[in-house]
TrEMBL record:
The protein's name in its UniProt record: DDE Tnp4 domain-containing protein
A matching Pfam family: DDE_Tnp_4
Chain coiled-coil ranges: none
PANTHER family membership: OS08G0106900 PROTEIN, PTHR22930
GO CC terms, sorted: nucleus
Principal subcellular localization: nucleus
Keyword Nuclease: yes
Homology family: Belongs to the HARBI1 family.
Cofactors named for this entry: a divalent metal cation
InterPro entries: HARBI1-like (IPR045249), HARBI1_dom (IPR027806)
Length: 233
């Protein structure tokens, strides 16, 4: 019942009819399953290995230049159903209310850190700063780095691309690389796209992330994001 709900974005009354169970029963067991999967968070969303990633090792495009990079970080917006009094805080660059979800992924498309629940209007830099200062927050091991988008800026442990230079893969076409900065950006983009692919895969697999159910409280919506990431891994 739980997987049908999050995988197909079905209303509780439809789940009740499909499984011939009462509305109350399906609601109770949805919450129990959500809690149980949430308890597995630290078992399945784990920090990345400190070894050189397989995608980078012995690949002349990336090794040795990116051998100390353990993943990529980015944010995505997930629809949020919130009360009228806080809608303004959850309305950012989207036309609808969202929560800003930040994640780190390894180069095998696995989530290694997830922070959900920030308002849609929050800047990605603010969300990252929060992740770094939490008691069990994002950790960057000494000598290791994450690839990030330009909006995060350069800081210890985080490497963005060069600004003002072609970056996104769809900007290249058949045009050859012109200089060292373009070459760096091309390879940076080829690796960092991993996090975008992970978010895309997550939203395709779990349709509930496309639409906030207003009968779920916002804390439950946050827990649903985490549960989807656990199941994805």
């Amino acid at each position: 019942m739980f997987l049908h709900t999050i995988g197909h974005n079905l209303w509780n009354r439809i789940i009740s009819a499909n499984f011939c169970r009462s509305y109350g029963t399906t609601s109770i067991y949805f919450r129990k399953a959500l809690h149980a999967i949430g308890e597995l968070r630290n078992d399945y969303i784990r920090p990345p290995s400190l070894e050189t990633p397989t995608k980078i090792a012995r690949n002349h495009r990336f090794d040795p230049y990116f051998k100390d990079y353990i993943g990529a970080i980015d944010g995505t917006h997930v629809r949020a159903g919130v009360t009228k009094d806080v809608e303004h805080a959850f309305r950012g660059r989207k036309a609808f209310t969202t929560q800003n979800v930040m994640a780190a992924v390894d180069f095998d498309l696995r989530f290694t850190y997830v922070l959900a629940g920030w308002e849609g209007s929050a800047h990605d830099v603010t969300v990252l700063a929060d992740a770094l200062t939490r008691e069990r927050g994002l950790q960057v091991p000494p000598g290791k780095f994450y690839l990030v988008d330009a909006r995060y800026g350069a800081k210890p442990g985080f490497l963005p691309p060069f600004r003002g230079v072609r970056y996104h893969l769809n900007e290249w076409g058949n045009k050859p690389v012109q200089n060292e900065m373009e070459l760096f950006n091309l390879r940076h983009s080829s690796l960092r796209v991993t996090v975008e692919r992970s978010f895309g895969s997550l939203k395709r697999r779990f349709k509930i992330l496309d639409d906030a159910k207003h009968f779920f409280s916002f804390p439950v919506q946050v827990d649903i994001v985490i549960a989807c990431c656990v199941l994805h891994n």
